[in-house]
Amino acid sequence: MTKAHEIWIGAYSAKDKVGITRVELLPDTGELIKTAEYGAIENPSFLSMNKEGTRLYAVCETDSYDDGEGGHEEGGQLASFPIDAETRKLGPGQYLPTHGNHPCHLSLTPSEDWLAVSNYNGASVMMYPINPDKRPGPPAIRFRHTGTGPNEARQEAPHPHSVFFSPDGQYLFVNDLGMDKVMVYTRGPEAHEWSAHDAISLEPGAGPRHLAFHPSGKFIYVLNELDSTITRISLEDPTKLVRLESISTLPDSYTEESWTAEILISKDGRFVYASNRGHDSIAVFNINEHTGELSSTGFVSTRGKTPRNFALTPDGQWLLAANQGSDSLVLFRIEPQSGLPIFTGTELSISTPVCVLIR
């Protein structure tokens, strides 16, 4: 039998509810099976894992937390859990403050020596050195953002929404929804040296949320939440990033409210996928192999409400969509020629899923 895909789901949850769920996808049958559920962690809204699969990292998206002595501390937390190599069970968690409210995204450097966390309501990015045992050390670097955007309801302050390290680990890209900017930081020659490098301005009111690097290394595709667009950025010269065209993630005929959530690129670099919350779909785009420009090839219903996150299996054969608003994890098979996700008929009930991590 083909080896099962290991999947971890993060959710919005109270401490007395299930926050992290482990699932297996059996490729031979297309079955989804719950194998473990974990509570006692509040709002583990985004997850990451080291390459060896020995430690799981999560942000606790809160504005305060129990200090363990009967009081509360302001802000959120970074949690990390050891994973047993045989049973794949999580061990006791380690918790560190993020020194900012509502941390919502985290990312490891390719060399796994740093971990970055974005504080959505904290106007800051925290960076944690990773110890040899893969446990994060105390936060060592903080980047603060200042600025606003034209959308008074959503851009009244900076809102760092995601953190992505470049494939070479030299740069950190931070999508700030409140500032309409992608802030870029660079690694210095010293072990603990990171500094500001560049800032890419998006269309006013765009609200950059997530991004994806094309495997060619030539382009970045930035997903904008507020105006439901994808902006292409030239990465051919890292010292001079150039903003190119934008394309809508919605059908021309759609006029109701919708906000984007996640963006991914197929491993072969042929397709871009983006999720729409409101239209409740995965938008699929073909990537021109010569220019990198996108052209829409279709929209596929996620069979639920508010698809906040989705993931592709490493072999590119399956797509898993997390419908936050209808408590479901839905399985699609990728049609290899068109790249379109085809509904398999398989769904799994999970309360308020907001992150899908496939090992």
TrEMBL record:
GO MF annotation: an example: 6-phosphogluconolactonase activity
Pfam family, one: Lactonase
Superkingdom to which the source organism belongs: Bacteria
Coiled coil (residue ranges): none
Family: Belongs to the cycloisomerase 2 family.
Name the UniProt record assigns to this protein: 6-phosphogluconolactonase
Record organism: Cohnella abietis
Originating gene: pgl
